Amino acid sequence: MEKQTGEKALKTLIQNMEPVLNEGEYVFVTVSDIESIPRSMTICEMKEKEGITVVLRKQDAEDHDLSFDFIASWITLNIHSSLEAVGLTAAFSTALGNQNISCNVIAGYYHDHIFIDKKDEDKAMNALIELSKSNHSNSL
């Protein structure tokens, strides 16, 4: 099966990024052994020299007695962005930073995923929607 290529044009990406707030609360945990967590629970993982960072639902972490210190909301940018696209992360992270919102970004093959503090979800969605709208009439 041939994979589709993603969008590379920054203006098109921003104008059509369509942020979607996924339901639920998410946490980042670290484990030394990935086998200690059922793979069906994981949203994503990153192997680091200090341990394995795993993103999963808060309830799943609590059910498995995993410690965490950051409760996040998960926003998906619903446009198929190319892994080679330049500037999209900078654009949305700047928009969020201007609102004093930290963001933790994970790029999947098809979409960018942003994890932000749960308390900032409405403000973050508004900032991303405003960024997209403002670029419909502005040239990048």
Structure description:
This protein has 140 residues and is an alpha+beta fold. The protein has a single domain (10-137), classed as VC0802-like (2-Layer Sandwich). 28% of the residues lie in helices and 31% in strands. It has helices at residues 10-15, 58-63, 88-97, 121-137, and strands spanning 19-31, 42-48, 51-57, 71-77, 104-107, 112-117. It has a six-stranded antiparallel β-sheet with strand order 2-3-1-4-6-5. The radius of gyration is 16 Å and the shape is globular.
Compute the number of strand runs: 6
Output the helix-strand order. Answer: HEEEHEHEEH
Share in β-strands: 25-35%
Mean pLDDT: 92
CATH architecture: 2-Layer Sandwich
Keywords:
single chain; 140 residues; alpha+beta; VC0802-like; 6-stranded antiparallel beta sheet; 28% helix; 31% strand
